[in-house]
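INFO  loader      accepted 1 record
INFO  loader      residues=154
INFO  predictor   begin
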Amino acid sequence: MLYDIEDKVATITLNRPEKVNALSWALRQELYDALKTAERDQGVGCIIIKGAGRAFSAGYDLTPADPSPNRPVEGYVSPDLDKLTGQYACDLVKGWWVIWELNKPVIAQVHGWCLAGASELASMCDILFVADDAMLGYPPVRALSTPDTMYFPW
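INFO  predictor   done
INFO  writer      dumping tokens
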């Protein structure tokens, strides 16, 4: 993750170009922390999120070696909730709400691939600037389900 402030604009760069900026648990936590830092900084007027290298992001990092935090789901938990899948989806949604709750405008600067989880990230931003070469999509919908974010139905 790269973090820079210039002319009252905080720029947060997803910096895993070798993994096409795949959103690992660690990278997402760094992103949330950087967003909160920018929100608290009185010298920042808006926030830009972009990707290093050839793409904004290929989506969630599904590498088996990516250690997921073993956090309990907060609030009411249905006894029918699958403990693995349900926890994963709840954690994703809770994380994206960090963006929603910021007072400062958040801009997604999208180029190259913006897929699956990356499209969820971009959709939670207030404004998207999309390059002509960008390819946005949600491939999991073909075989699984709708996106994890509750924001999409709106």
